[in-house]
């Protein structure tokens, strides 16, 4: 049975069982759609498997088979960095930029 983890492993956003933004891999590593797409390009950073939309468990079943409450949060290499810039070659030197 799916654990239905409550949050994105990367940005810690809440992903309730009804969320259509939840993405999981075959090991149930769980991410939000934003992280899955913009940071990982649909590939799980832990196991390199596909990230796909998590099936929604009907409310009627959640009573008997509740979602997991265990929040998992990991520091992935891809999480530590901001999403890659949209336009490469914009002339900015990453080393000299201070924000
Ligand atoms: Zn996320
Ligand atoms: Zn995985």
Fold and architecture overview:
The protein is α+β, with helices and mostly antiparallel strands and 99 residues long. The chain is built from 3 helices and 3 strands, in the order ββαβαα. Strands 2-1-3 form a 3-stranded antiparallel beta sheet. The longest helix has 7 residues. The radius of gyration is 16 Å and the shape is elongated. One zinc ion binds next to loops.
List keywords for this structure.
99 residues, 3-stranded antiparallel β-sheet, binds zinc ion, Herpes Virus-1, DUF1272 domain-containing protein, DUF1272, 3 strands, elongated, alpha+beta, 3 helices
Strand and helix map with partners:
Blueprint lengths: L21 E3 L5 E3 H7 L12 E2 L5 H4 L14 H4 L19
Antiparallel strand pairs: 1-2, 1-3
InterPro entries: DUF1272
Protein name: DUF1272 domain-containing protein
Organism: Caulobacter sp. 602-2
Uncertain residue segments: none
Through-space gap between termini:
45 Å
Under CATH at level 1, the class of the domain at 1-68 stands as Alpha Beta
The residue-averaged pLDDT reads 87
Number of helices: 3
Query: According to CATH, what is the topology of the domain at 1-68?
Result: Herpes Virus-1
Main sheet specs: 3 strands, antiparallel
Strand order of the largest sheet: 2-1-3
The CATH architecture name of the domain at 1-68 reads 2-Layer Sandwich
Strand content: 5-15%
Strand tally: 3
Note the overall shape: elongated
Tell me the Rg in angstroms.
16 Å
Relative helix content: 10-25%
List of distinct ligands in this structure = zinc ion
How do the SSEs run, as a string of H and E?
EEHEHH
Determine the structural class based on helices, strands and strand pairing. alpha+beta
């Amino acid at each position: 049975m799916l654990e239905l983890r409550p949050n994105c492993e990367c940005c810690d956003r809440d992903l309730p069982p009804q969320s259509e933004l939840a993405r999981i891999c075959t090991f149930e590593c769980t991410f939000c759609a934003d992280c899955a797409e913009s940071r990982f390009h649909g590939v799980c950073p832990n196991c390199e498997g596909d990230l796909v939309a998590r099936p929604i468990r009907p409310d009627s079943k959640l009573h008997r088979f509740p979602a997991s409450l265990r929040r998992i949060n990991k520091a992935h290499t891809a999480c530590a960095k901001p999403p890659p810039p949209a336009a490469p070659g914009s002339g900015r030197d990453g080393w000299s930029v201070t924000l």
